[in-house]
Amino acid sequence: MANRICVTLVESSPAKLRSLLKKALRRSDYAELRLDFMKPNMVPLALNLVKRDLKRCICTLRPKSEGGKFSGSEKNRISILKLVAEYNPYLLDVEYNTIKKNKDLRQYLKRSKTDLLVSWHDFKKTPNTTALKKMTNEMFKFSKNIKIVTTARSISDSAKVLSLYKNVPKNGNLVAFAMGDYGRMSRILCTQIGSPYTYVSLGKPIAPGQFSLDEVKSIFKMTK
């Protein structure tokens, strides 16, 4: 059982992000910095302000097409991802569709020895088990760290996602759970069957069904 926590932080101000990060890391293991919530020209300043804590940070620059807030050009986004890689965060979250089609980015991250988290989200549904297993196998070709998040329309959808933990490679790390009310408990159960951590908010949920830091800490106390 991991019982580790990653707090998702969304902030448009670099200075406020640093302040929130200090607060989050006092009570959690990791923090996810959603850099797509700030203007692109603010990202370099933000990275400089938080660089001492980046070894405990997962950096994300999610485009609108993948459910994020980044609305600039893909060329600009790729250049920012490369910049983030230079700061050597704990993990750099890059979408499966991005890493699959961008050979230049793949090679850059390999040369820079960036620890990559390849992520894939389905914001409408949960595919069948066969499709999920296939996706998992494809994603592990690009990194030993992958993240699969679907939208649960039933309890069985959560079970489909959680079943993926049975087939994780020996050196692989899988973070997989489902969003929405039906997927809510999968965010907790995943840490008990193989996920290295679960994502939480500092208060208001950032994603559907997300628990707060206080809620998850209370639940983990009961599982000890």
Mean pLDDT: 96
Question: Structural class, judged by helices and strands?
Answer: alpha/beta
Main beta-sheet strand count, sense and barrel state: 8 strands, parallel
Q: Tell me the domain tally.
A: 1
CATH topology label: TIM Barrel
Question: What gross morphology would you assign?
Answer: globular
Instruction: Count every helix, treating DSSP H or I runs of 4 or more residues as helices.
Output: 9
Side-by-side strand order of the widest sheet: 7-6-5-4-3-2-1-8
CATH class: Alpha Beta
Under CATH, the homologous superfamily reads Aldolase class I
Give start-end ranges of low-pLDDT stretches.
none
Straight-line N-to-C gap: 10 Å
Tell me the quaternary state: single chain
Helical percent range? Answer: 25-40%
- Beta-strand percentage? 15-25%
Total E-strand runs: 8
SSE order: EHEHEHEHHEHEHEHEH
What CATH architecture label applies?
Answer: Alpha-Beta Barrel
Tell me the Rg in angstroms.
17 Å
